[in-house]
Every structure is written in structure tokens, then in C-alpha cells.
Amino acid sequence: MYRILVSNYQAHLLRYNGSRISAKADRYYMSVGNSCIKKRPLPAKFNQITFARQYLANSSNYMDDMYKAWSQDPKSVHISWDAFFRQSPTEDVVSHAQNMGFGLSQKDEAIIDDHLKVAQVVRRYQYTGHLIAKLDPLNIASADIRRDEKSRKLGPADKTLVLANNLLEFCKQNPERMFQLPKTTYIGGKERTLPLKEIVARLENTYCSSIGAEFAHLKNLNQINFLRERLETPGAGNLDVETKTRIIKRLARASGLESYLAKKWSSEKRFGLEGCEVLIPALKQIIDQSTKHGVDTFVIGMPHRGRLNVLANVCRKPLVQLFTQFAVLQGEDLGSGDVKYHLGTYIERMNRTTNTNIRLAVVANPSHLEAADPVVLGKTRAEQFYADDKEGKKSIPILIHGDAAFSGQGVVYETFHMSELPSYTTHGTVHVVVNNQVGFTTDPCNSRSSAYCSDVSHVVNAPCFHVNADDPDAVIHVCNIAADWRAKYHRDVIIDLVCYRRNGHNEIDEPRFTQPRMYEVIRKTKPVLDKYAMQLEQEGVINANEFKEQKTKYERICEESYIEAQSVKTTKLRDWLDSPWKGFFKNKDHLKMGTTGVDEETLVHIGTKFSTPPPDFEIHKGLERIFRARLDMVKSRTIDWALGEALAFGSLLKEGVHVRLSGQDVERGTFSHRHHILHHQTKDKAVFDVLNNLYPKQAHYTVCNSSLSEFGVLGFELGYSMVNPNSLVMWEAQFGDFFNTAQCIIDQFIASGEQKWVRQSGLVMLLPHAMEGMGPEHSSARLERFLIMSDDDADEIPELDENTEMKQLEQTNWIVANCSTPANYMHLIRRQIALPFRKSLILMTPKLLLRHPDCKSSFDECLPTSHFQSVIPELNSGNFKKLVFCSGKTYYDLTKARAERNLTDQVAIARLEQFTPFPYGALKATVAKHDGAEVIWAQEEHKNFGGWGYVQPRLENLLKAKVRYAGRAVSASPATGAKFLHSKENREYFDSVFN
């Protein structure tokens, strides 16, 4: 027992430098040495530490003895010595041994040094072996794109990338010598000693063959050991006969579909999968393995390459529906449709491998390759929320990327950075990179600066498996590891399928213009199906006749589906919906809208709760004043903007509608007006969620500050809104101008998504907007951009009747509004749910009006008899000479300027609250009240911005008369940043209205 005590203490002293660490060792062994003292009491004033030190000082040969015993049998010494000899650098051993009075012979020092070299060899292969792995099916490209930029030739494996010259020489000189394996490796299995050449061979087979595993950047040792064990354990990657048979069948189907499409539609772009057919068995294996862990919902996002094959052979979308996309058929659904390789789908089917029901959705995606990434994550998060799947055990996102897009498009980075955020995490995404080794025509060395296209994933400590796509066994092995990793750790993981494009960017592109050498090699390269079939024949898994029959059988299936497709006369875009809303449209009157008003009792209850902080919860002193003011408003039956918003949210929550508000600083509000999350002033991280405490059985309210991202977060919220139409999902920009970095989501999904893919969304975009002298990036939410993308025709005035408003709302691509009162804001938000269909809402929201004394509404304007007003006419009566139409915050500036000029009885000011769809009926009625008055459009934005370009032709066509513009002149910048110039422009603006 004394020897154990001394051994432990010895190990700690030798492993660590400095008195601070030694002191820790002293304190540790003061406790663990008690058992020794009980068996053999020490002399008075002599503790176990003193004893250990004296014992060591008098035992010069002690380390020699311990090392000799360990080298013969590691189990013969205490575990601390075992760890010490395995892991401690040689120089530390020798130095500390000499300091402690030990005498080590040169022979012993050499033995220790050799064992440590073996440990270094193991570590180097584990962490850098991927650099010389045989990843390229064409054997012409290096893993490190910077090694030889001119030829990109790999040549013989350059082991100096892995081992230093001294380690290489050491391995050459000691091939047969037996070494104890360090505990940081699993290559020995049950064996703990191996010849050095066997150690190196097993390491090379694990880390330098068809799999290049990157995990050195991980911080968690348990995660690293999980990957080491799954990769290194002898036989870990061996597949059974059943699995290999399944792979060849799936490969045959993947290859067969591409061959059939090429035969039938040789001149059509289809962005086929030739060169990476293994993607199909890879995805199916991820799904199979994840299903074993309990996953039943898979949301897939991908670019166009291989999409048709994924739809057919992963999702099992009927081939008849697929083939009809190649025919010139009339569309049964309204909309423009889209090219076949942009479409999505939703399938519920039986997974025959695991005999469980699964749901698969492939999200529609435009040619902006990575734009669907955040949409997929948002959709997955919503699936998890509605299934109460708090740990992401039931739903999983799978993102398929191209190599150039993965490294080149910033939304990938934005998406990765949401992976661990509490309100945005999907608890792990499986990323699969279809690594073509060329971006359209551009070499990797010209399209990225990193060695690998996947290096962006390092920011979230995701392991990456680079794998040769022409080695199906290796691909399936890493797919199993990836699925198990996600199930165990709920973190992202990347599979980098290093492959090639047999036909260039698309089937009619000529790749040899820019890649002559690569495509000369590709021309001579056998397809992976033929290679794998030959391998399995040699292994005795299949025979040639079976293989031929598999190919023939699938061709017959394709031919039968093709014949059936010839009889189809119309194509249904609804067959390609990635988010079907079962039963939502059933038995609904598309011309009837639900009530947006709220009864007074509910308004008072919500207003009071919203204005009352919880007891024994210390809030900021400034908030006490705000809450008192809110409560006073409730008592006086008036509301401001923040209270009107709370009434809208709270009443929907009461009705069972889930409400989600997301964006930068939305919890407090950029302008400190909202305060939906209260923070205790003396207790750290103690918070109170106001709107989640209104009613005992209300729906859940999610308000979440986002990362400093617009593209990624807006895409996420769009995906979230697609899952459940009976929910209100909103994204708020910090300043309205900032939406422009998310323009791709707006252009490709929100503005055109319904027309291209028959996909509705009730997503709300809140964009702070108004000219207040705050400069060009904090003034205009670029209203004109949304209006110019609205799909109504200025030359077509609808027939005006009682159903006109609902018909317009149903037919528009979205709603664009700029409210000026809290009550109208409340009605507009509630209308998103009251409509019998879903339309996205683009809403210009105020800044100055959040606290403007005149921007108030009464409860009367919120009651069940009230509704949203698309136009608010002049409330004053009189014989007006001018009728001024305006929108939003400028109304309050104009009324003030009108009063200062004593023109209240001469100029009427009406507010256009909704631009799209254009409210012809309400505008016509307003003009009729002021017959003979000059009609003016006034806006504080510059003439080429704001609403003028949209309003002018529509209003003039309605009135059959000219409308005068009053406002700022044209400008390249949306606003000035100089206060004096802003004031000057305002004076000129008011003069142009009233003079």
C-alpha cells in the first residue's frame, strides 16, 4: 500500500511542472493516503507526503524498477505509472527523475523515448492522416489543394505531412519490434502489444485509405474517443452480406434512373448524379440508421444536382409524376411552376429496412444553391416544436451541399452558427457534401482558401469524414458513424463525398473547355456500380447474372412508368409540395374572413397582465415607470404601439395559436419599447416571460433574440412558418434597411414561392421604417422594392363589389402595409390568422411613433365590431381644396405642419395603410367624399423610393386624372445623415404639400 501511495505521488510530481501543481498533488494524496496510515500508522509529526518524499529520495533505482515492471506487463504496476509511461514526454521523465534523485541509464531513457515515439505516431495518424488519404476516385487531386496548384497531382503518399522525419526513420528501423499500445487508440482491439509495422499498417488503413477523418479540432475528449473507437476498432468498417447486397441494389437503381433519363431525354438538363451515384445508398443508410434511433421525420435540403434521383430513389416519389415533368403539360394548379430540378416533395412511407413509418420532405430550392439551408432548419425546428420533441430525437435535418457553394456562400456560415442557439437549434444536422472537385468550371484553388471545402464546419466543432465516393463500403461506414454521432451528441456532422461529375455542370455543358485533363481521366474511369459489382463478385456476395437482373428489373420499372406517364394530360404542382397542410383548406370559404376584433374583457385582462410585473421580481427602475404608464392606458381604455402588439399576440395565444417572434434584440425591442422578457436586476439569469403567463391553458409564445444574421434567420423563420398554418411566425429587422442582406430569401422564396411551388406562408416581416434624420442605413426599409415585386397589374382595376377585398387578398403574392395606428396594427396581425389562406405580410413599422403622444388608439377601435382599415380617411369635415394621401409616420408630421399653417379646413389628409393589394374600393370612396379637391400623394421618402412609383399609375387609372407628387427629389441614397440637411428637406417637403 505504501508503494501505491508513493507511486501515485511520484507520477503526479513527474507529470506536472511547478510547485502549484505539486501542491495540488500534495492535497490530493493527503486524502487518498488515509487507508495506508490506518494499516501502518506513521510516526508522530510524520505525514504520508513526507514519507513519500523521503522514500523517493532514498530509492534511486525506484523508477528503473517501475519502468522495467511496466515494460514487461503494464498491469503489474499501479494505473498512475501506466498512464505516466504512456503519456509523459521523455524529457519530463528524465528531468524530474534527476531532480528527485533517480538514476536512469541511457538504455532506459531510450526505451522510454521509443514508447513515446509510438504514442506520437498514433496521435499524428489520428489527427493528420486525412492529409494523405486516398480520397479522389480519379487519383489526380490532393486533399490539400495548395500542395501543387499547377497540376493538383497527388502522386505517392507524402508521409511527411503526417509524420516528422525522425518518426518516419524510427518506423523504418523498428518494424518488428513489439510496443505497448497507448490507451488513446483502439487499433489493437483486445491486443495491447503489436509490432510497430502492424501498428502503422492499422493506422494507415484507418486514417489514410478511403476515409479521411477530421476531428482534431474537437474539444471534448469523450467525443474524440467515440470517433476513435468507431473508426479504429478492428473490423469496425466491415459490412455483412445483407448490407452489401442492399448497397448494390440501391446503386443499381441510382445508376439505372440516370441511364434511363439520359436515353429518353438526352437534350434536357437534369443535373444528373453520374459520378456520385453513391449519394443514394448513403442517404438511405443515414435514414435507416437514424430510424433505428427513433427518428421518423427527415427534412432534406439540396441543390439541383441529383435532386431527381433523390426524389425517386430516396423519397420514392412515383416515377410517373417525375416523368411528367419532362413533358409539355398544362398545369392544373395556378402558378408559373418551376424547372423540375428545383421542386420539392413530401412523402409518407414505410421504411422497409426497419419496418417503421417515416416522413420525408425535400424542400423546394432555387438555383441559389445554399439558400434552402436555413429554411430546412426552421422547418425541422417547427416539426420538433409541434411534436414536443425537445431533444430532436424524432426529426432530423439533412443538408446536401455542393463543394464550391459550401465553402463560398455565407449563408452556410450563418446556418452553422444557429446550430447551438437555444431557440434555433435542431439538435444536430447531418451535412452531406457532393464534392465535385470543381465549381462549374473553377478549380478549388481558385474558389476557396481552405484546404477542404468543409472547413467552415470547424466553427461549431463538427467532425468531418472525407470519403472516396467510389468506395461504397467506406461511405456506408461513415454514414453509420454520422447517424450514431448525431443520435448520441445531437451535434452537426459532415460527410464529404469526394466524387466527380461525369457530364460536367449539366448534360449539355462541355467540361473539357476548362478541365481537359480531369475529363480525360473521367472518360477512362469505370462507373462505381461496375467497380462495386466486380468487388462483390470476387467476394462471392453476388454473381453476374444477379447483377444483370437487378439492372434489367429497374429498367422495366422505368419503362412501365414512362408508358403510364404518356397518358397524363395535366401536371399537379400540389404533388410537389414539401409542406402539405392537411385539412387546412377543407370546407373553408375563401371569400370569408374571421373576426379580427377582440372583446373588451379579453383586452383588459391581457393589457393588465402585460402591464403588471410579477411579485417579488425586481425589475429595472425605468421599467417601473413604463409599466405604470401601460396600466394607466388600460384603465383609460387606450393603447400605444407596444400594447396593441401585446393585445394581438395575447388574444391569439388565448385562441390556441402559437406565436413566434424572432430577430435581433426583439425581446426588449431595438427601440426599448417591447420588454417581453423581464430580467431580474439582482439575480443573474432570472427572467420572466410576460406573454407566456396570461392564461393557464394558452398557446406557447416564443420570443427569441437571434444571432446577428438576416439571411440565415429570415430563412429559418420562413421554414418554421411552412409547417403549421395555424401559427403566427414573425421576423423583425433591427432596422428595416437591414433586410437587404436577406434579399435572396425574399426574392426566391417569399415573393415568388407560391407561384413557383404553390407554397403558401403566413410569415410576417416587421421592418422599422421612417425618415428621422438617422442616416441612409437607419431610415428606409426600401418599401419600393417590395412594391415593385408585387404581382398586381396597374392597368387592371378589379370589379368593385363586396368580395373584392378577399379576392384581391387571395390572388396577391403578398401583403405590403404601413400602418399608422396601434389598433390597425393589431387587426392586421390578427388578420394573418383570420384569413382562410396564408399570405406573407411585409409591414413597415414605426420608430418615432412607438412613443408619439398622438399615436394612440382606443379600445373601441379593437372590439369585435371593428376591423382593419386599408384606408383611413380624413376625420375632419369641410370643403377641402386638397386631398393628400400619405402612409405611415409622415401623417403625424403632415397634420402638425397643416396646423402650423392654419390649413386644417382646407387640406384633407387620408392614410393609405395597405399598399398591396391596392385598395381601389376604399380609395375611390375616400376621393368621392372630397369631390373637386386636388389629389396629392405625399411621402417623406425620395421620389424614386417609397410608394410613389407604385401608387401613381394605380391611383391615376382609378381616378382617370393626374395625381400630383409632393416629397423629396430623386436620390441615390435613401436618406441623408446630416441633421441640418434633413430638417431643410423636411421644410421643403411640407412646402411642396401645402403651397
UniProtKB/TrEMBL annotation:
One of its GO terms (molecular function) is metal ion binding. Its main location: mitochondrion. SMART domains: Transket_pyr (SM00861). Transmembrane segments: none annotated. Its EC number is 1.2.4.2. It is found in: Mitochondrion. GO terms for cellular component: mitochondrion; oxoglutarate dehydrogenase complex. It is an enzyme of class 1 (oxidoreductase). CDD domains: TPP_E1_OGDC_like. Belongs to the alpha-ketoglutarate dehydrogenase family. The 2-oxoglutarate dehydrogenase complex catalyzes the overall conversion of 2-oxoglutarate to succinyl-CoA and CO(2). It contains multiple copies of three enzymatic components: 2-oxoglutarate dehydrogenase (E1), dihydrolipoamide succinyltransferase (E2) and lipoamide dehydrogenase (E3). This is 2-oxoglutarate dehydrogenase, mitochondrial. It comes from Allacma fusca.
